[in-house]
Specification:
Length: 125
Amino acid sequence: MKVVSLILAGSLVAPVAHTAPQMTGAKPETRCGWIANPTPANWWLNDKAGEWTISEQGGYQATGADLPDFSTHDWVVTNAGDHGYGCACLTASYDHKTMRVLDIKSVKQRTLRQCKVDKGLKSPG
């Protein structure tokens, strides 16, 4: 019985081992655009390529550096509890197939104006 459970456990681990390096090995890149936090634990970055998921409440969460408190300046409140949107650049690794932010290296908040004048970005509001 122990042999069967070891073989079964090994077969469950193998697919994870094959997919993990592809995700964690992604080369970091810097993307800038609107960062949205409409409700608790839901975060997205919207840039010229589209909408990148940073985190979803009760679900996916990017790893790495924490997001700063954007609400202290250049932040538009659209919901209770200072939830809203701002402008930022994220240096992170990204999964281009799933449009997810994988591992955040750094975050730099930008002024709202910097995103507003960028013709390649869709307005968040």
